[in-house]
Specification:
The complex is a heterodimer. In chain A, strands 9-8-7-10-11-12-13-14 form an eight-stranded mixed beta sheet, sandwiched between helices. A five-stranded mixed beta sheet of chain A has the order 2-1-5-3-4, covered by helices on one side. Chain A has three domains: 2-84, Roll (Ubiquitin-like (UB roll)), CATH 3.10.20.30; 98-367, 3-Layer(aba) Sandwich (Rossmann fold); 381-484, Oxidized Rhodanese, domain 1 (3-Layer(aba) Sandwich), CATH 3.40.250. Chain A is built from 18 helices and 19 strands. Chain A has helices at 26-36, 38-44, 98-102, 108-113, 115-118, 124-133, 145-155, 188-199, 217-221, 234-247, 274-277, 290-293, 298-316, 364-367, 384-392, 405-410, 446-456, 469-480; strands at residues 2-5, 18-20, 55-59, 62-63, 80-84, 86-89, 135-139, 159-163, 204-208, 226-229, 251-257, 260-266, 325-330, 335-340, 380-382, 398-401, 417-418, 437-440, 463-466. Chain B has helices at 9-22, 63-75, 96-100, and strands at 5-7, 28-33, 39-40, 42-46, 58-61, 79-88, 107-113, 120-126, 133-136, 138-140. A six-stranded mixed beta sheet of chain B has the order 4-2-6-7-8-9. Chain B has a three-stranded parallel beta sheet with strand order 3-1-10. Strand 6 of chain A pairs antiparallel with strand 5 of chain B. The complex binds zinc ion (2 copies). The site of one zinc ion has 8 residues of chain A, from helix 11.
């Protein structure tokens, strides 16, 4: 009997287009040809002896691939074709392996608790088991971490690790809804843990009261299925993304600033990483960090909820993922748009073929030209105490406030000249070069940028920076000398 | 040594137009070239034979169409080098199902397509020895 071998499979059969086989049925044919060409055996059959998905057997124009047809007697002149099945699909797959899903079980109370998920065809028992089997790391228990942690806990994520080194402050309560006024001065991770316990006591909550750095990051994130970045600074974001690449863990990224938020999924399925999207952070002096810049209360709720939703979709293995995309939401004008993020073929991290990628913290201030470099004239500064003394001494001093209007509204600094950074060069004549001039901002970083800007513009008078900004001044102003403010 | 697959600009344009034309459904095509030359010389668009409801996320080529195509290719001195398909609104990465159906040694080109553009085109092949899939370089000329 003649068996035609498709050109796509010929290399496993000595490049023959046709084989003469002495057999009376399909089973006999397969046995004979895979014995004659031993290399073809593992191509045609899988480890369990089953025909591989990409092999099709046709007899007289009919598909006889199914095993039930294999012992049918074949006529001597029948045309037998060994053909390829070419197929594929983009079906979403869960990031939680099946073995781990199968190892999970539910009791009656859990079935009742998760009824709303179990009712959804796309989630069901399988999906809910994946959620329970999942181990998710949340970096940051602040504005974005608040909705993320609470929704993960409510959805039934089995293990949640939260990393944050801050204590709760009263100003956090406005948009960090996982904490309450009673939690002020407690570590954020402790407060988050209490909230999660109140949601579902059976969730394993791992509290890590540590600051993430290049040294500890790998150890902290290793062994988790997914990392959700809820931090508010670039140094942390880059080390988190780099570590996710090293450990092969997908990253759900989120960021908020004033009224705008961004969400995206990085390092998923060989897709782009954070550095592909943002090779370098924006200049530090120009963009206040979240801590400096503020954000409207519900914005982190919107963005964090989308992060939690993406995380659950990755875990269950359903839907469209914001993979290679960044969703940008403008909450002020209620607009949103998707930005495509391309993988950078020269990305220093995710495209690197080095065996070991060194995780390094970006030197953020240096990156942005704000940090003093050696050949630059060093910037002199006043500590808050020195500035307070100087003001008390009646020595003439000019204070220039470069903060944004909303920042000045929170904390007024008396007897200052207000000049936004963008207008400094143009308005330098308003300053008297004979008198010491002190520049103030919220954290003492934008004020350095202000001094550098004026120097570049040719201003020659003595300039000083308020070290640590008005933040550092708070205690002095309020506790010691509240009188002069 | 295999140094990736060469795709000429006009061939890549044909692949992209096919993907855009079939959007939001997956399209598929047979890639033809000459033996021993890692270059795609011709493409043969074929029907996506999977169920209508699945065509947005799946593709299938009728094996008898492959049979017919390879016969015709041979007459022209060409052979099947591999297969092309599109991923509407998804990245051009290999899905588990794609990988399962890959024949070792064949070349698989995937294009990610949306309503107006083809943001990503990537190539893959499956190893003879351990059956693992790996990305290959697409050289464009
Ligand atoms: Zn595919
Ligand atoms: Zn990258």
């Amino acid at each position: 009997m003649k068996v035609y071998i498709s050109a796509t499979l010929r290399s496993f059969f000595g490049r023959n287009a046709e084989l003469s086989v002495a057999a009376s049925d399909i089973k006999g044919i397969l046995d004979k040809i895979t014995t004659e060409y031993p290399d073809s055996h593992k191509i045609v059959f899988d480890e369990n002896g089953e025909l591989r998905s990409f092999i099709k057997i046709f007899v007289a124009g009919e598909d006889k691939t199914d095993k039930s047809n294999w012992s049918e007697a074949l006529g001597e002149n029948e045309e037998v074709l060994l053909l390829p099945a070419i197929a594929g699909g983009v079906s979403r797959e869960s990031i939680i392996p099946d073995e781990r899903r199968k190892a999970v079980s539910f009791d009656d109370a859990e079935v009742e608790r998760f009824e709303n998920h179990l009712l959804l065809r796309e989630i069901g028992v399988k999906g809910q088991k994946r959620i329970k089997a999942a181990r998710v790391l949340v970096a940051g228990a602040g504005a974005l971490g608040s909705p993320v942690i609470q929704y993960l806990a409510a959805a039934g994520v089995g293990t949640i690790k939260v990393v944050d080194f801050d204590d709760v402050e009263i100003s956090n309560i406005q948009n960090q809804v996982i904490h309450t006024s009673r939690d002020v001065k407690r570590p954020k991770v402790a407060s988050a843990k209490d909230t999660v316990r109140n949601i579902n006591r059976s969730i394993v909550f791992e509290a890590e009261n540590t600051k993430l750095d290049a040294q500890n990051i790998l150890e902290i994130i290793d062994g988790y299925d997914l990392v959700i970045d809820c931090t508010d600074n670039y140094v942390a974001r880059y080390i988190i993304s780099d570590a996710c690449v090293v450990c092969g863990i997908p990253l759900v990224f989120g960021a908020i600033y004033q009224y705008e938020g961004r969400v995206g999924v990085f390092n998923y399925n060989g897709g782009p990483c954070l550095r592909c999207a943002f090779p370098s952070p924006p200049p530090a002096g120009l963009v206040p960090t979240c801590a400096e810049g503020g954000a409207i209360s519900p914005l982190p709720g919107i963005i964090g909820s989308i992060q939690a939703n993406e995380a659950l979709k990755l875990i269950i293995g359903i839907g469209e993922i914001l993979d290679g995309k960044l969703l940008v939401i403008d909450s002020l004008n209620l607009r949103s748009h998707l930005v495509n993020v391309h993988k950078d073929a020269n990305c220093a991290v995710c495209a690197s073929n080095e065996n070991e990628i060194q995780i390094e913290e970006i030197d953020y201030e240096e990156f942005c030209g704000v940090k003093e470099t050696e050949d630059e004239i060093p910037i002199e500064g006043f500590t808050p105490e020195e500035l307070a003394k100087r003001i008390d001494s009646d020595d003439p001093v000019t204070i220039v406030d470069v903060r944004e209007p909303h920042e000045r509204a929170i904390l007024r600094f008396p007897n200052v000249i207000v000049i936004p950074i963008g207008q400094l060069a143009r308005r330098k004549n308003e300053l008297n070069p004979e008198i010491d001039t002190v520049f103030i901002c919220k954290e003492g970083k934008r004020s350095i940028l202000a001094i550098n800007t004026l120097r570049e513009a040719g201003y020659s008078g003595p300039m000083y920076n308020l070290k640590g900004g008005t933040d550092a001044m708070k205690n002095i102003i309020f506790s010691n000398e509240g009188g002069w403010l | 040594m295999f140094e990736g697959i060469l795709i000429k600009k006009d061939i890549e344009r044909k692949l992209h137009n096919l993907a855009l034309g079939k959007y939001p459904f997956e399209c598929c095509a047979i890639l033809l070239g000459r033996q021993g030359e890692d270059r795609i010389d011709e493409i043969l668009p074929v029907n996506n034979a999977s169920e209508t409801t699945k065509r947005k996320v799946q593709f299938e080529i009728d094996p008898l169409e492959v049979y017919k195509a390879e016969g015709e290719a041979e007459k022209k001195g060409l052979e099947i080098l591999g297969f092309f398909h599109s991923h509407p609104d998804h990245r051009a990465s290999l899905s588990g199902m794609d990988e399962e159906y890959m024949i070792p040694g064949m070349i698989y080109i995937i294009a990610s397509v949306d309503s107006e553009s083809v943001p990503e085109t990537r190539g893959y092949t499956k190893n003879y020895t351990d059956g693992s899939a790996e990305e290959i370089i697409i050289r464009r000329e």
